[in-house]
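Before the break, one more example. Copy the sequence into your notebook; we will annotate it together after we see the structure.
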Amino acid sequence: MTNGQIFSRNTQALFYNYKQLPIQRMLDFDFLCGRESPSVAGIINPGSEGFQKLFFGQEEIAIPIHSSIEAACSAHPTADVFINFASFRSAAASSMAALKQPTIKVVIGPATVGGIQAGAFKIGDTAGTIDNIINCKLYRPGSVGFVSKSGGMSNELYNTIARVTDGIYEGIAIGGDVFPGSTLSDHVVRFNNIPQVKMIVVLGELGGRDEYSLVEALKECRVHKPVVAWVSGTCARLFKSEVQFGHAGAKSGGEIESAQAKNQALREAGAVVPTSYEAFETAIKETFEKLVEEGNISTVPAVNPPTIPEDLRIAIKSGKVRAPTHIISTISDDRGEEPCYAGVPMSTIIERGFSVGDVISLLWFKRSLPRYCTQFIEICIMLCADHGPCVSGAHNTIVTARAGKDLVSSLVSGLLTIGPRFGGAIDDAARYFKDAYDRGLNPYEFVEGMKRKGIRVPGIGHRIKSRDNRVKRVQLLQQYAYNNFPSVKYMEYAVQVENYTLSKRTTWF
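Here is what the structure looks like once it is written out:
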């Protein structure tokens, strides 16, 4: 830290707890400012290692992911800033671990992650979008040092300061905790030692006594640059009882902690304190203009920031571009509030009591089939739900599992044996029988025609069962079809083919 500065255009940080959007915003700010290297050196995501692809301008870069703070600090010894986005549960442990690292000089967060040095370094989501950063002139340094308790109000003041001055040099939000990691006076004194900072703006709030340390610094002449300050919360006196505002430390207590008392103390210590928040902007403007008239501030050279390419996802959402689809699904639709199967919302499926067969009809046939069809599907599932070792597929799966292979490998070993002569014959049988019937071939013409072509008639023939010992599954399905289907012409044709083949051999059915 030279002359009070904690950041520069070369500052690099380690980012704890992977959050893609804040990190990408930091990298976009880097590119906007014309930094040669990204400000995020590495990401710490406990339990994970690898790389994360992010954009640095138009190019994708790979940022290392480390599983521990120690490993990240060892891999990136020049990264001296630790940005902590830890959850409440791990906040204390991660912060203490970072403080023990000799390479880490500044620990930021997780109570507040608000801070920016214009044109040099930005912490996480500070100052919001790129458009807002450009509007607030944060892509190049100005002459104002700003410190606030509130991160949200900081963004408002960046805009206010940009309207009436040449912009900020550095802005910090210390957070609204009762016991913050740094105080308002810490940063004001630090700003006083930075030559590029010509004036200081402070936004405090009621509750606590942090502002009084700034009062003492002003009285002791440790701050000689102009300070424009306002302590918010003057409305607290309108309430009859103690009021807790948004921050833990922002609560109305005794008179000494009131906004009015703090504003008066700052005014008496020499700070420029307006009579209301509405007059805060005017006070900043007048102080800045006085410094310009005295020749203490020179004109900041105009800088044209580069254009940040818009993310495809955002551009598509805003309707600026269109992109072709990569996968087309006509079965289910997960784009809305709830999934839809062939256009039927999932809630409708549940409320109307759809059966498994009804759902399969939507997914496989893309429409709701009649009840006799969906019940037929359910019967097929029940009849084929055996797991015995008497068929090749199940046997292969059992052998593979006994060999110690995993579940997926065992299952696949059985499925891969399904083909025209095992399991899959039923598919070819349906195709050939339907084609023969539609072409008007009688069973003799069909069977003999297949024989001349050297093609086995699919679905005909069994190694165990015979004409006098039929397959029970087939009998049950035939009986259901006769009793429930409006037409069974293809099945009747198959039975005629079966009768012809049985005349040749008793197992050809």
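The two ends are 91 Å apart (CA to CA). The chain is about 40% helix and 15% strand. Try to locate both features in your own notes.
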